[in-house]
Amino acid sequence: MCSGVASVRRARSFGSRMPTPSRLTIVCVLALVVGLQSVRVPAAETTAPTLPELRTLGELQARLYTHVGQPRFAPALWGVKVVSLASGRVWFEHDARRLLSPASNTKLYTGALALDVLGGDHVIRTPVLATVRPDAAGTVAGDVIVWGRGDPGWKSRGSDRDFWSAFAPVVEAIERAGVKRITGDLVADATWFQSLPNGAGWTADDLNDYYGAEVSAISLEQNYAGLRVTPASAAGQPCLVEWLQPHTGLTVENRVVTGAADAARRITPVRVTGETTVYLSGGLPAGGKPEVVDVTVPRPAAWYAAGLKAALARKGIAVEGLPRAVRWPEAPVARPGLAVLGEAVSAPMRDLVHGFMKPSQNLETDLIFGHVAELSRNDATPAGRTTEELGVAELRAFLQREKLPVDEVKFEEGSGLSRNNLTTANATVALLVAMARHRAAADFERSLPVAGVDGSLRTRMKGTPAEGNVRAKTGTLRYANSLAGYVTTAGGERLAFCVMLNRNSGQPPGRNVREEVDDVAVWLAAFAGRID
N or C: which end of the chain has fewer CB within 10 A? Predict the structure, then answer.
């Protein structure tokens, strides 16, 4: 009992702006501690523990203090802040200026940057060029070049369209130019981005997974392909392997063996960075269903060029030369002054932000970050300044314009996969407050996942007052979990909040780390008590 009182006193010091809990509140808190300790949520359960109704803001604050102050979080780091959008009043804060890893909460900053600098109507225009103009017969007696600008929309994944639809914007531009035959090469020029293909601060093991796919000014299918693995008819035989997308340039060394009917399902793909062989090991049970594994594709612009040549052939446009690609620091092939055949136009920026924010898609975020960055490059840009460095500079300028705490945002890249990205709950809430009054407020909020409904929150907080209410960006890395966005309380108060939990290495039975941050959002959504 005494330790519970001590934890409340310690927690009180973390938020100097918070009202001092009354003696009655402390008694309530102690009861809540007992309730929290007795709760065991089943592993599949996503709802918050059922606790007594909160009648005042002081009781809500006490519950939050108790939650973050539990002894099991002693090795962990919390950063929490909650602000009323109507009054600007700080409802709660705990170590809100502690620099922590935001993980994919970084995407909030990239989305806000793109909507602020470019606006929701902005489209990405990819030039389609030729070294000579087509003649009267529609022959280009030279090369055709696609000059990439980071359009993330060249994909069929996640839709009911086929693989070839990803090439439609460029194929249609070439068709409109009257081209029937290309005697030279088909070149995918991805040199517009002047950074390494792997983001700063990424780890080596990220590069073998879809979420660590290479960043390229010309991308295809989010720069990873699917391998369908099907068990053979009898145990002991090798499984069958086939690509779901062609022209990857990858080969497969298949070591996956069909096991007995009750054998475990396990497939491990490994592609060594810089190499093109995929080593596939493991096994599937005889009579079992096929399984699809994802494999990142190196030099995705080369994959795009090979696929585009095949897509043009399907339309009767012959390319007699080779499909090839260049990327920084290789010399560009595209240049001003070449013949313009046309351009491929992306979806509006509001849709592109929606497209990466809802599912928390890393590559597409970094493509937009890079696009904003390169639009800022000019004759005065210092030589050697990378795309990522320009993007970080543009983000810093945006934060300064909005009078946000720029020194509390220390990023290397735009998606949040970097382990070196750091920010504070205070800075993230300040961003959310600024975007709530921004001209792009509706587009920004629409891009956020909705609890229990869609995106990376579709399975979370179901059956709670947060479902269909909380709009927030998730963030997950090893030892880093974040949730930040907007919620309307049961009392009708609209709040901006950020919850960051780092270095939490263990959970009680039946609990997962996501529930620790989700519970805060649920309690905010459920609160209908008095404010004063």
Answer: C
Cβ atoms of residues 425 and 499 within 8 Å: yes
Q: Cα angle vertex 152, ends 147, 156, to 5°?
A: 110
Around Cβ 309, how many Cβ atoms within 10 Å?
22
Residue of 81, 89, 84, 87 whose CA lies nearest to 426: 81
Mutual angle of helices 106-117 and 425-436, in 10-degree steps: 30
Helices and strands: H and E segment counts in the chain: 12, 21
Check residue 240 and give left, alpha or beta (phi > 0: left; psi -120 to 50: alpha): beta
Residue 263 corresponds to which tokens in the numbers above? Answer: 């054998």
pLDDT digits (tens, 9 = 90+) for 278-336: 999 999 999 889 999 999 999 999 999 999 999 999 999 999 999 999 999 999 999 98
CA distance 3 to 118: 53
Give the pLDDT confidence of 191-233 residue by residue, as tens digits: 999 999 998 999 888 888 888 999 999 999 999 999 999 999 8
What does the pLDDT look like over 396-419, one tens digit per residue? 999 999 999 999 999 999 999 999
Write out pLDDT tens, residues 327-338.
999 999 999 899
Segments of 90-185 assigned E as strands:
90-94, 125-130, 139-140, 144-147, 181-182
CB 360 within 8 A of CB 253: no
Please say whether the dihedral angle defined by the alpha carbons of residues 495, 425, 469 and 529, taken in this order, is positive or negative: negative
Give the burial class of 475: count Cβ atoms within 10 A of its Cβ; 0-12 exposed, 13-18 middle, 19 or more buried. Answer: buried
Decide if 323 contacts 185 (C-beta within 8 A). Answer: yes
CA 231 to CA 46: how far, in whole Å?
A: 35
pLDDT of residue 235 exceeding 60, the answer is: yes
pTM of structure:
0.88
Note the pLDDT tens digit of each residue in 56-69. 999 999 999 999 99
Phi/psi zone of residue 77: left (φ > 0), alpha (ψ -120 to 50 degrees), beta? beta
Task: Please state the length of the chain.
Answer: 532
Nearest-angstrom CA–CA distance, 311 and 220 = 13
Helical pair 513-526 and 57-68, crossing angle rounded to 10 deg: 180
What's the farthest any 2 CA atoms get from each other in the chain? 91
Q: pLDDT band for position 103 (50/70/90)? A: very high
Q: Are 398 and 112 in contact (CB under 8 A)?
A: yes
Bridge-partner residues for 506, per DSSP? Answer: none
